[in-house]
Amino acid sequence: MTKLVILGGGESGVGTAILGKKEGYDVFLSDFGKIKNTYKEALLLNGIEFEDGGHTEEKILAAEIVMKSPGIPDKADIVQKLRKQSTPVVSEIEFAFKYVKGKTIGITGSNGKTTTTMLTHWLLTNGGLNAGIGGNIGKSFAWQVANDDYDYHVLELSSFQLDGIIDYAPHIAVITNISPDHLDRYEYKYENYIEAKFRITMNQTESDYLIYDADDEASINWLKRNTTKACLIPFSIKQTLKKGAYLKDEKSIVINIDEEELIIETRNISIPGKHNWKNSMAAVLIARLMQIEESSIRGSLTNFQGAEHRLEKVSKIGGVQYINDSKATNVNSVFYALDSMTTRTIWIVGGVDKGNDYSELMELVRGKVKAIVCLGVDNRKLIAAFGETVDTMVEVDNMTDAVRMSQKFADPEETVLLSPACASFDLFKSYEDRGRQFKNAVRDLQS
């Protein structure tokens, strides 16, 4: 039996362990931290050997293949030792792809990939296709391959997951956009991060498709310097395209594949903002490639609810709209969020800065932001950037105070927007925890 070792006992690790056991591997899972009880139960139920709270190097280094969870960096000591002895270290996506029966649709990008993935899955399932959703969202891809028989898998893929692929090739790949993010994992070189994103197309063939943002500078520059065998399909909100998807007169998106034109009015897209017009373009292009009927696409776009923590309307209290955009952990995400605001806005921002350049937000802040509430341990960079731009700027160190302070500043027909531009780990467990605390604090205003 081939010895498979899995590093990390989270969703992707446990899913890979279950698939590996099903496919006849000798499986051992090791997590340096603590494994959640629900995952331990799944491992025990499937008779899989595991450890947590540390690594037994002798067992790990005896592996013939290793699946590394995406949260574990390549520079980790145990990973370096495995690579030194030439043990293959792959991602869950790579491992599961060998056993998948259906086709995969892989969606990556710095921003918008969660929404695009969810919307694509919504369009396909409403259109009658047997499709699963996984990767960096929902149930583990490997877990689904082990237990479900989908014809299509719609996968949200991070650069960390793509770093660990060798043969993986999606039938349809999407790169929503690329902006500087996670550079600490890429030697602080933007070009390394860009290359990681474009790994999604490296194994595609002439019968596959790469959908990309024709307005995105990093994507366009990469495509000028490199080649892919995939059929290229662009989308844009700035230019008219003969093939692909584009915005017409700020009122409708035009989808044109093989000279079959589909026109959808932007007012019929349920999720707000120009960035969501782009996400919708990418998802509809996929749906058209999958032969989903026009009537189904139109209906699905109208009633799609969107992703939690992404421009999520929480409540309207005293005429003030509260919006949870906790998933906006970089400047590019916040740009789209502020750009979509149609009222004066109280902006809750802050957390662990990831090398942000706030200058590109300055025009939007001047035009739309009434007050800034800094929610973080260290807000000096934010204060330096915007302290002279807005009249009101305060610091808080917990979500309850952030929401209550925002309520004081907001008048009827204005908006309170949580869009942090930063990671959450100074005050919160995750961006999900931050978003849920925001929603709870807003609901408490009504009690």
Could you characterize what this model shows?
It is built from 17 helices and 20 strands. With 447 residues, the chain is α/β, with parallel strands linked by helices. It has a 9-stranded mixed sheet with strand order 7-8-6-9-10-11-12-13-14, with helices on one face. The termini are far apart.
Rounded radius of gyration (Å): 22 Å
User: Which whole number gives the mean pLDDT?
Assistant: 94
Proportion in helices? 25-40%
- Do you know the CATH topology of the largest domain? UDP-N-acetylmuramoyl-L-alanine:D-glutamate ligase
The first-level CATH class name of the largest domain: Alpha Beta
- Strand tally is 20
Give the strand order, joined by hyphens, for the main sheet.
7-8-6-9-10-11-12-13-14
Instruction: Kindly name the structural category.
Output: alpha/beta
**What percentage of the residues does DSSP assign to strands (E)?**
15-25%
Q: Would you identify the regions where 5 or more consecutive residues have pLDDT less than 50?
A: none
Distance between the termini: 60 Å
Number of helices: 17
Outline: globular
**Gross CATH architecture of the largest domain:** 3-Layer(aba) Sandwich
- Domain count: the total is 3
| CATH superfamily grouping of the largest domain | Mur-like, catalytic domain
Major sheet size, sense and barrel closure:
9 strands, mixed
